[in-house]
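Tutorial, part two.
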Amino acid sequence: MEDVQWKAVIESLIFVSESPLSLERIKEVLGEVSKKDVQRLLSELKADYEASQRGFTLEEVAEGFQFRTRPAHAEWIKRLKKTKPPGMSQPALETLAIVAYRQPVVRMDIEKVRGVDSGGVLHTLLEKKLIKIIGKKDVPGKPLVYGTSRKFLEVFGLKDLSELPTLKDLEGLGPPSAEGILPLEEEKAGEEGTKSEEDQEALIDELSSEAPKDTL
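Running the prediction step on this input gives:
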């Protein structure tokens, strides 16, 4: 097949994928095309859309590739959808920021920064899949350890955590520590996608029993 045909195939794959499609997954589906060639074809596709000023772009987010509308067209898209984008409360944004910049982090450390109980907000962020439970800390009580999820990267349009902006307001949090973290059963700490949703939901239920649920 010629490049133009491979590009069309890649477009189809990304179009039907419900989440950002990784380079490795595209390579796996295409089979005989090398990883280097897949990268080249993706770069050419992205350049094609930019050059033609299409209404959407090809972006690399959440360690994968996804079609996204241009921010400049947001006003017209809102008119079509006739819905307001979901907002987040200040407590939710504060908690999410702490998890993002301080991960891996336990609830106690989050509450030291915020100065208030954060169990309910954590529960809601877990339900929205913006954060995930990556293990338990190897200390008395074995508290749950939290980190951001691929959904977090997707929602905020980040390729990976290295693209998080530098926020001077969070410098006082200090460096994160991964010492003494026990992986969840059948899952390595921090590994994405290997833990079943049922197991994650069971841990969410465990958290919800500790504090009343807050709303975003």
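DSSP finds nine helices and six strands in the chain. In part three we will examine how such features are distributed along the chain.
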